[in-house]
Design goal:
The chain crosses the membrane at residues 12-34, 46-66. Keywords: Membrane, Transmembrane, Transmembrane helix. There is one protein chain. The protein has 67 residues and is an all-alpha fold. It has one domain (14-65). It is built from 3 helices and no strands.
Length: 67
Amino acid sequence: MTTLLIEGGDYTIVILLFLLFFFGIPIILGIIALTLRRKKPKTAKVLGIITAVYLIISLGYCGIMTL
């Protein structure tokens, strides 16, 4: 039989931290990109692309690794 170093417990904080990293950063970057859309459209487009790539990677590869 194998035993875990940390058994049981409430993992709500850990799940919330993962969700914050998966969705929090892209939401903040998306808001920044939307606010820069009129003043600096090229910068806003780059931030939008970075946001999309970050979201795809964090939900895809990193999301699978956390399971």
